[in-house]
Amino acid sequence: MNVNPNHPKSFFKYMSASTAEKVLKNRTLRWSHPIEFDDTLDVAQVCDGKMDRNKQKQIHDAIIDLAASSPANLNKRNTNKIFKCLSSLISLFGSGKSSAISELKKGSVDISNSIAEINERWKEIRNDFRILCLSIEKDNHHLWNKYAEEHKGVVIELACRDSSDSPWLIAKPVEYVNEKNLFITKEDWAEISILELKKAVEYLFEKCTLRKAKDNKHKWFEQNEWRIPSFCRHHETGTISDYGVNPNDFSAVYFGHKMDFETQDDLLSLLVGELGHVSAFRCELDSSQNISFRKLN
User: Fold this and answer.
1) 291 and 148 belong to one structural domain
2) pTM for this predicted structure
3) Which is higher by pLDDT, 218 or 8?
4) How far apart are CA 264 and CA 76, in angstroms?
């Protein structure tokens, strides 16, 4: 696998002490359906519920521009037949294609049926989502407070091994957008509309699972979140799934500075055998609330 040199070398998962015990004992991590997330608007329930005539016209024009922009678009793999025909038609006009484009843009358009079809397909696959949320920081106060029991919990470090079976290598950063309902833009819809249905859904999957509102009240953007979107297995029900982790992926465990020492010792006792290589640290705060970590083993 060709690894992006800028890809994080490690990811961090914040959790309670009781969850950490299960994770270390079972060598698993919990993947969740979006209903389990803090933000109810996270991962859109429909791709676009506000497809008015004006937006449809903007998408229509953007598709025409895509068809005319480059001959390469004609040969795009996974584009649908209508788009290929449109590209071919425009190319026939040669140097006079500007007038052809203008005429094409004068036409009326109604893509509501196509959008409805995609929305229905989206709702079906959304039911099966399982998403693992990760951080690229181990010293994020917001995350320690919210997800690690206000410093009484644990952060587990996962190393990105340079191996084709390492799932962390496909993690992608969340894109924080300005408006809560801004999941799919007109430019996105234009790209989606030229694809075959399967590829269109894949495009939507990535866009809608990796966008989150830049909410100043909750300050989601402070989490610097990365995600690995996936699906539940056929036999699974409910909204959570525990999937196995290669023991070699566990790199370090960080204990909150408010964790009691008995709990800490219990968790330390689990770092044996396949987890004997895992380093352990305890979080410490200075007078300015800066976080540092003291090695324990």
Assistant:
1) yes
2) 0.81
3) 8
4) 55
